[in-house]
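tool_call: predict_structure(chain=1)
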Amino acid sequence: MPTIMITGAAGFIGGHVAREAERRGGLSLRLMSHRRPPAGAAAAGPATAGPDPATAGPGSGSGHGHGPGAVVPGHRTVRADLSDPGSLRGVCEGVDVLLHCASQIGGTPEANEAVNARGTAALMAEARRAGVSRVVYLSTASVYGRGAFRAARPEDLVRNPGSPTSGSRAHAEDAVLAAGGVVLRPHLVLGDGDRWVVPGLARILRALPGTVEGWAARTSVITAQDLARLLLGAGLAPAGDLTASVYHAAHPVPVTVRTLLGAVAAVAGPAADPAAEDLTAVRARELLAARGIAAQGLDMLTSDHWFDSDPVWRDLRCTPGPDFEAAFKELAEGYRRALLDI
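tool_result:
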């Protein structure tokens, strides 16, 4: 029975990974959390001092998501803090696979550097010392910065992070790759526990009186459940099956921004008539600024952010889940409740 340690196990993506591992069975789980034990898990070890770094999934590249926690009764919880390297001593002892899903998202540049860059480097040192056989890091396509991406492959792109969060996560990638690990880069992640992607889109929709140049861009999306399957699959796959060390992680079929925003509008409550006006991107930025809403998210909605993810599904011999429209129907009621206060 292999032992898998999941960092950020009480966060958005980490919680989904822990539940996916529990569903799969035949695994011994060690759940690392700096903040609160995942629901149903047995605590082990004291809480550590230090700042409160976020455990979150990727997405908009700002803020952090709070997941519902992992319902994994009987598995061990380790309390440790990536910003305190001393708290990491011994956490990887007896671990076969490390799924690193914890990140600081937003906050000060110093906090991002402490958790994502130095914290990941310290964790990789512990993993090497303990002889962990596979490390998989949950990164983000935000490490590429701005631009139009169409069926883009990792080997054809150059990282150009545009924020302290993305820059520090690129440094975390370097530490993982230097340790022989695997990196997954999703773009937009949807699901139970999402506090940033769909809520952020709802705010933009409510602030604008119409579409923005037709919302014709295409974007890569994945559900948290599918992403959890990929992370676990990458951790357990035979080494010979992996043809790359960096993968994009998304549903293979991109979604038009018009389709994405139409689904969000259906669960976000009253909003402006999308047919009222077709705005230029410049005008849309002005309107968002007047409402005090950061315009960075608009860049992802007005240019293609479509990342080729066929290789990860092929190498892991996984079948993607339902397409966007079918998947979002399953998530709609949860989002409707979550958006009541937005």
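agent: The CA atoms of residues 285 and 295 lie 6 Å apart. Proceeding to next step.
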